[in-house]
Design a protein that fits this description.
The protein has one domain (about 5-134): 2,3-Dihydroxybiphenyl 1,2-Dioxygenase, domain 1 (Roll), CATH 3.10.180. Helix content is about 20%, strand content about 35%. It has helices spanning about 15-25, 65-70, 85-95, and strands spanning about 5-10, 30, 35, 40-45, 50-60, 75-85, 110, 115-120, 130-134. Strands 1, 2, 3, 4, 5, 6, 7, 8 and 9 form a nine-stranded mixed beta sheet that branches.
């Protein structure tokens, strides 16, 4: 059901410092910051030859990333994202298998402009999983 690894998302306490780290120290192709108000984050995508890194920074006081950073002040891996061909088919299969879909179970539009869903980390070895329809 799952396809390629789309990205690994890292929550960062200082977005500018993280951009400099990836761009100047690691020599990566770093995109421009983009605000995603529906998700309460500012994201920056780093393009690698085989996948992407997504830097996440809180957008507003109600950001879920703010809570993550309160618990992990240095930042850290927030989630991994896998591609799926049909997000509704994937959702229905996962629900039938006993997995929990976060939120109301309906896909939202993600940072790439495509439908996404998040899966409960307790069902996936402590890892928050995002599915993105491609």
């Amino acid at each position: 059901m799952i396809g390629r690894l789309n990205h690994v998302a890292i929550a960062v306490p200082d977005l500018d410092a993280a951009i400099i780290l990836y761009r100047d120290t690691l020599g990566a192709d770093v995109g421009a910051p983009q605000d995603e108000p529906d998700h309460g984050v500012t994201v920056v995508f780093i393009t690698l030859p085989n996948t992407k890194i997504e830097l996440l920074y809180p957008l507003g006081d109600n950001s879920p990333i703010k809570g993550f950073l309160d618990k992990n002040p240095s930042g850290g891996i927030h989630h991994i994202c896998y591609e799926v061909d049909d997000i509704l088919v994937a959702r229905d299969h996962l629900l039938a298998s006993g997995a929990r879909v976060l939120g109301d179970g309906n896909p939202k539009t993600g940072a790439h402009g495509k439908p996404v869903l998040f899966l409960h980390p307790k069902d996936f070895n402590g890892t928050l999983v995002e599915l993105e329809q491609v």
